[in-house]
Amino acid sequence: MWNLILATVGILSLAAVLYVTCRIHRFSFIRRVAEKHKILAWLLSLLPVAAVGLFALINSFTMMIVLLHLLFAFIVCDLIAFLLRKVTKRSFGYNVQNIAAIVLAVLYLGVGWFLAHHVFITEYEFTTGKDLGGNLRIVEIADSHLGITLDGTDFAEQMVRVQETQPDVVVIVGDFVDDDTDREDMLEACAALGKLETTYGVYFVFGNHDNGYYNYRSFTSAELRQALKNNGVTILEDESVLLGDRFYLVGRCDRSSRGRAAAGELTANLDGAKYVVMLDHQPNDYENEAASGADLVLSGHTHGGHIFPAGLIGLWIGANDRVYGTEIRNGTTFVVTSGISGWAIPFKTGTFSEFVVIDVSSE
Questions:
Q1: Whole-number Å distance between alpha carbons of 13 and 64
Q2: CATH annotation of 120-362
């Protein structure tokens, strides 16, 4: 299904090149050039699309996203102009339409750039009938995908903000690194995690990108593991740990891992009187996790939708049980974060970047 979606995006990007070029060709000064130099006029019309091609220096996905938003902006402005002509019986000219479309695309993507690069703090408060022995503060971080909008230095700066929240425990819920993350960024980010001062420590579960899909990364999965351990970060792989005799932290292997344990297996031998926090990178096993007796399940992966309408498509094809926010099923509270960064594309038009501060207290 995702291959079909990517193929569709590619086809639409080619359509965007043709559509936008034709619309730019309607600028009055270009039409005047075309009266004597047709080839030159078309070359001038291609210049804006060629400028968009510079986004390929980031990656091809970013370039295609910009092209698609330009296409969308031109279509919207064309439709509005058509309706205005029908209603007012006046023509506003292609110059106005074209300028409006370009401004719309730039503003929309400009906001998307800000929402991707500015990290918000999202706070949740939950209660439980179980005895926690006081308030428990959890900071959830996911999907840093180091190197896209956050490099190692940027991530370290965000960890200063995390420290200011005075967390009892910090959990990294997958996709800490990406397939093209630099070794230096990985090491700097791990060192930043090692500087956090918490009551119970920093815990990590793997996401689908952490082990890497390809072999061009400048460090191995084993080196990532070692860097985390060297900085006092505990990796949980289908494992649970009892912290302060107050609550359990259960870390699941990612859905992409072969032979990962069922949610119920991981909680079967736990003390049911204690609060259970489960970490699972991908939010797509809600029924089993609710049945497992977990009290709180923390996930990421979806980036909150990242580029609209990707989140809706993910729900439609059944890739995720939830895209963003909270949900309660059979007494289990689920939280999906939009992530502190995102994969490949340095815009967020369907959400924003965040880390999550969760306060849990006994009723």
A1: 6
A2: 3.60.21.10
Tell which residue, 121, 204, 119, has the closest CA to residue 154.
Answer: 119
Confidence of residue 2 (pLDDT cuts 50, 70, 90): low
Angle of helix 60-88 relative to helix 38-52, nearest 10 degrees, comes to 120
What is the C-alpha to C-alpha distance for residues 298 and 141, in angstroms, rounded to an integer?
10
For residue 346, whether the previous peptide bond is cis, meaning omega lies within 30 degrees of 0, is: no
159 half-sphere exposure, CB direction, 13 A CA radius = 24
Place of tokens 């609710």: 290
Q: What letter would DSSP give residue 165?
A: T
Of the candidates 69, 53, 97, 58, the residue with the CA atom closest to the CA atom of residue 12? 69
User: Are 303 and 343 contacting, i.e. CB atoms less than 8 angstroms apart?
Assistant: yes
Confidence bin at 45 (pLDDT 50/70/90) = confident
Model pTM greater than 0.85?
A: yes
Residue 37 tokens, joined: 């130099």
Q: Are 143 and 181 in contact (CB under 8 A)?
A: no
